[in-house]
Amino acid sequence: MATPFWYNAALTLIKPLYKWQIKKRALTTEQLQQECLERFGPFQQPKNLHAFWFHVVSVGETNAAQPLIEHYLKLGHPVLVTNTTKTGQARAKSLFLKAPYEHLFQAVYLPADQKKLVHAFYQKYQPKLLVLVETEIWPNLIDQAQQFKVPCLLMNARLSEKSAKGYAKVQGLTQGMLKGLERLLAQDQATLDRYRNLGMAVNKSQVLGSIKFDIHAPQSFIQQAQQLQQDWNLSARKIITLASTHAPEEQKLLTAFKPYLAQHPELLVIVVPRHPERFDEVFQLAQNLNLKTSRRSAGEAIQLDTQVYLADSMGEMWLWYALSQACFVGGSLNEPGGGHNILEPIALNVATVLGKNYFNFQSIVDEFVAVNGVKIVEDAEQAAQVLIELLNDRVTADQLNQHAQKIMLQNKGSLAKHIAVIDQYI
Length: 426
What we know:
There is one protein chain. By secondary structure, this protein is α/β, with parallel strands linked by helices. It contains 18 helices and 14 strands. The protein has a 7-stranded parallel β-sheet with strand order 3-2-1-4-5-6-7, with helices on both faces. It has a 7-stranded parallel β-sheet with strand order 10-11-9-8-12-13-14, sandwiched between helices. Helix 5 (about 115-125) crosses helix 6, helix 10 packs across helix 13 and helix 11 packs across helix 16. The protein is globular, with a radius of gyration of 22 Å.
């Protein structure tokens, strides 16, 4: 079923705005040129034809797909990953663009969803199948999968009530996309019901749980963390990571931590802003608060008097969690918020705190809240207070972690079920 004329016309009209946004985000001219080539062509040469193509939007989806991608790379299958965001691509490359997988693995940006571009992409890469992870479905991407006879699966699918209402407003477009999916594997019953109400066929959709629970920290990051513990003399430090933060979370949280940092020289706060274009802004915030700050991008070590460490790098989140005893997962205090993935720190037994605006991960977070496996806070002041309490009261922190591990254990197994479905299309 061809995509409607109005959709393609709208994309043509907004293309200049899209290019302007890319230009605004780019940190260097070289980075801008590379991204424009990958999004608008001519495309990079494929390392391997007939690869398993995974489209993972950003960091969260890349992390979710990590065990799935790793499974097929270990079996010797070539894998192509496309991302929508810079941080997502950096994470994918940090995980897989290294021995022993570099000859099998390639990561590029997803082309803009114009029919001509998407057609050229399929023609060039000739993927064996396309696996969309979690949320992102594009009309021409799915339409051209049918044209090229590439099975298209939506896995680990989640759909909020708000997004479902949005899709319902363009019913014709949505139904066309859903018809193009070979299979839809939902994280939970609420997601499945929403997709079926939008027109997804009952015989092609089911609940398989979330593969996010099968996550594990790559050994290389754990070893790197152990090395840094020694090199930077961190054994006596009490370390909190503020992960995937958005504006104005850094300002509020660092302000709340300032009195604690003044009183406790052993305390260290690692800040990992979600978006790389905000790195300099966050550094300036810490400077304005007169906090002794070191930067990862400048190759600076954590010194005895370092109070704040700005982790202004990409693809290293596992490393910062592995160095921490407690963490705050951002995007959850800002408005409207939505939150980010809490399962990475939990997988490393890091006591986890987040704000109340976590609707993007509602069903997952609620499971942990129900057993007191994470702490939910109302504001930055409460976040700082709770994090300091968890650092100082290891009994409470250990109990929190034990409760969280029970939920992780209960939910494991979705990965094997997803692999069984994908294997039907190989």
